[in-house]
Amino acid sequence: MSLRTSKQATVKDKGTKPPVVSEGDLTPETIKEFEHACLDFFDNKEVKPEDQVRRVLVSFKDHRLRNWISANREQLHKLSFSDFLTELKSKYLPHDWESKLHIRILSASFDATKQSWHLEAKLDPALSLLYFEKEINEELDFNRWLDHIHIQDKMRHHTEKRQHEIADEVVCLSKKPLLSSNRYNSNTSS
User: Fold this and answer.
1) To which H or E segment does residue 21 belong?
2) pLDDT, tens digit, 9 for 90 and up, residues 140-179
3) What is the pLDDT of residues 6-18, one digit of tens each?
4) Shortest CA distance to 53 belongs to which of 16, 73, 80?
5) What is the pTM of this model?
6) What is the C-alpha separation between 100 and 108, in angstroms, rounded?
7) Kindly report the CA angle at 50 between 55 and 95, in degrees rounded to 5?
8) What pLDDT is stored for residue 42 in this prediction?
9) Residue 65 φ then ψ, to 5°
10) Between 28-45 and 81-92, two packed helices, what is the crossing angle to 10 degrees?
11) Spatial CA neighbour of 10 closest among 25, 1, 21
12) Alpha helices (runs of H) in 46-124, residue ranges in sequence order
């Protein structure tokens, strides 16, 4: 939604009552907190899935959300809770909220050790075998770790290239005719 305020919405978890979302702008964190509070409420009150959205539409105190709910109440009642959250996010979060959140998570958790863990998980399977065989994963300095990976990858590519060359040579040799059988027979018959 384009109308943003400087105030961020907050969630008050009531446990046995629907959570309350105050006036203000929704954030991914606010919606996640709302989701958890709702799931607790659904469990505590044994709310059936088909009644979940109907039971929590009263949670929102911001006039913008109240107007949206009023205008779309029938359609919202038909949604599953998960689909309702998706709709809420698409209407009230910036279009690029997922990429911004992803960047925030990665930048908050990126130290040298964690960088290698993230990269380790994405290694080529053949390189991964070398990685653990050579115990590169024990290297604590990120730049040295990266150098080791680079060297192993170069060696792996060189080995693969040589294997392909040998295979090509074998194919070429197999296409050449063998010694003529007449020549062989003439040498043995004399």
Assistant:
1) strand 20-21
2) 566 777 777 778 788 888 888 999 999 988 888 888 776 6
3) 799 999 987 789 9
4) 80
5) 0.55
6) 12
7) 75
8) 96
9) -70, -40
10) 160
11) 21
12) 52-56, 63-77, 81-92, 97-109, 112-121
